[in-house]
Specification:
10 helices
């Protein structure tokens, strides 16, 4: 397996190092780098992991809540320490995020990235605010990660297909190389090949100009989704990405859910207006993100987007070995 190394944020996208898949008996760490968790959902998620034959270890501050900013799961230093210790533990095969929310960017610069790099590749799973960690891991470590539901999320605990897709991705990634949904539709026709990249739209925009911000995504299959953003705010954020040059050279775009963003037809108008002029294939409603049912999508792997067939096909399994 290739060693982990930092990437040039302006270079065309290339495949990243894939960590090994999980096997029964693996120890996995559960962390809360963003918002506070719902205790009952956390307990239910841990029980599911145990049913899968995994050995989950809960980081010390996962159940904390920041004393002043109640939207954070504990102090920044405590959340960073939990993540650092979990990742650098040689007995841990995967770090699974308990939930998203907000807070990753507050603690990212408190991490020892040299130590994280030396710890070698392992699985990182999460989405929403965890997009900031996905980007940091791609650029600072050159590591492929998994954009998928968190283990204390409603979808993981309550929705069987969502949970089954997480499990298949972790244990049997060959079985989930073709990603699609019954609702997938062509927004702009065509087929494109590239490296998967992206996540939550607002977090991609928030990373511009930061140490973990890219200056380009040439050769990328860009995944975008969001939650609770009105159409005009989606317009504003997409316009920021366009004006920054971040979307120059993107090979294709796959769009996920836009839950609580207003009537979808209004959202769709904005997506078509802002992205249609790029001249690349765009597939909508692929089925990942904040929806009640969600696919797990690897970031940093080569894939083919077929906007006409409504599918994203991974050229390699999400995980190695």
């Amino acid at each position: 397996m290739r060693p982990l190394r930092p990437l040039d944020p302006s270079a065309p996208l290339a495949p990243l190092v894939r960590p090994r898949r999980l096997v029964p008996g693996d120890r996995v760490a559960v962390v809360a780098p963003s918002g506070p968790v719902v205790p009952e959902r956390l307990d239910a998620g841990l029980d599911i992991l145990r049913e899968w034959g995994l050995d989950p270890v809960v980081a010390p501050h996962v159940r904390d809540r920041h004393p002043r900013f109640r939207y954070l799961a504990g102090e920044d230093a405590a959340r960073a320490h939990d993540f650092q210790q979990a990742w650098c533990d040689p007995d841990v095969a995967a770090v699974l995020c308990a939930r998203g929310g907000y807070g990753v960017q507050r603690m990212t610069d408190l991490l020892d990235w040299d130590a994280l790099r030396a710890a070698g590749p392992k699985v990182l799973l999460g989405f929403s605010d965890i997009t900031a960690l996905h980007e940091a891991f791609a650029l600072r470590l050159g590591l492929a990660t998994l954009h998928g539901t968190m283990i204390a999320a409603q979808a993981f605990v309550k929705d069987g297909p969502t949970r089954d897709h997480v499990r298949a991705t972790l244990f049997d990634p060959e079985s989930v190389r073709v990603l699609g949904s019954a609702d997938a539709r062509t927004l702009v026709p065509g087929t494109a090949r590239g490296i998967t990249v992206g996540g939550c739209l607002s977090l991609m925009a928030a990373g511009i100009g930061t140490p973990d911000g890219r200056s380009g995504m040439a050769g990328g299959i860009l995944l975008l989704e969001d939650v609770g953003e009105e159409p005009y705010r989606i317009d504003r954020t997409l316009t920021q990405l366009l004006r920054s040059g971040l979307l120059d050279g993107v090979a294709g775009i796959a769009l996920g859910s836009w839950q609580d963003c207003g009537p979808y037809e209004r959202v769709r108008e904005v997506l078509r207006d802002r992205l249609g002029g790029l001249g690349v294939p765009v597939l909508e409603e692929l089925g990942f993100g904040h929806g009640d049912r969600s696919l797990t999508v690897p970031l940093g792997v080569p894939a083919v987007l077929d906007a006409d067939a409504g599918a994203l096909t991974l050229e390699v399994p999400a995980l190695d070995g």
